[in-house]
């Protein structure tokens, strides 16, 4: 089978490898579709080092068909099922896991990191992952749509942390792929007033189609325009979906009292200092949180939205390339012209 192996920063090779032999409880997936995440770009460039070891096979956003299992499958699954893969395998024993925060388990393993991921023809699913429910059935969904469930679930986790599903208004700063996913999810979940901010007219146009009623370019008047759109109330929830720490403060005046803010994007090391006047937070009772990955329950919920046709995602994957072109796909994702770049080993 082919794997796109990252030997070190900026050092990738496509290699033929033997198909893994399955231990009891293990499964084998034929990868149908994998997507390139911004995190994959940072791992490829060597800018993200945490939990990364070499050599590695990246790809934590992927779908596949179950082709073999050494033992019984989890209830509800059969060979030939199409599944979306929840990438995190938590330890189940640490403080985070015990408190129901297994998505931030410090001992976790994950596909595309410690476990070879979806930039391959086949993926070996360890028994612990198969047993824990990491394979979520999505029969009837296009494989590329199935592969985008993971980032959508991350967006859903971020929205939940700021109570956005119950909010009347939401501001999303940054309309890259994840910003657009936040907008689309919020619209699907019934948020009444959604504001999108981005310098790209093309991305603002997609944001409008995704459910944003107010689209703005960043600038000196943006906060005032947001206040006007919300009839002076300000927004109840805000997502910073761009990796710039200075993308938060310009919109402080557009927040309603008690607003909740999610710093969703990852920020470059050394450029991650957040400058916020403490009294603004203190007197307005702002809540500022981060979010990391998603819970299995988030993944399953979003998978149900996609499989039921409630959430349309096909148009978010704009380019698909062959596995032999994985490095070019990563470069395409970095360039930012596409919403999401896919990789497939299928002819």
TrEMBL record:
<dbReference type="InterPro" id="IPR013149">
    <property type="entry name" value="ADH-like_C"/>
</dbReference>
<dbReference type="GO" id="GO:0016491">
    <property type="term" value="F:oxidoreductase activity"/>
</dbReference>
<feature type="domain" description="Alcohol dehydrogenase-like C-terminal">
    <location>
        <begin position="177"/>
        <end position="305"/>
    </location>
</feature>
<dbReference type="InterPro" id="IPR050129">
    <property type="entry name" value="Zn_alcohol_dh"/>
</dbReference>
<dbReference type="Pfam" id="PF00107">
    <property type="entry name" value="ADH_zinc_N"/>
</dbReference>
<protein>
    <submittedName>
        <fullName>Zinc-binding dehydrogenase</fullName>
    </submittedName>
</protein>
<dbReference type="Pfam" id="PF08240">
    <property type="entry name" value="ADH_N"/>
</dbReference>
<dbReference type="InterPro" id="IPR013154">
    <property type="entry name" value="ADH-like_N"/>
</dbReference>
<dbReference type="InterPro" id="IPR036291">
    <property type="entry name" value="NAD(P)-bd_dom_sf"/>
</dbReference>
<feature type="domain" description="Alcohol dehydrogenase-like N-terminal">
    <location>
        <begin position="23"/>
        <end position="129"/>
    </location>
</feature>
<keyword id="KW-0560">Oxidoreductase</keyword>
<dbReference type="InterPro" id="IPR011032">
    <property type="entry name" value="GroES-like_sf"/>
</dbReference>
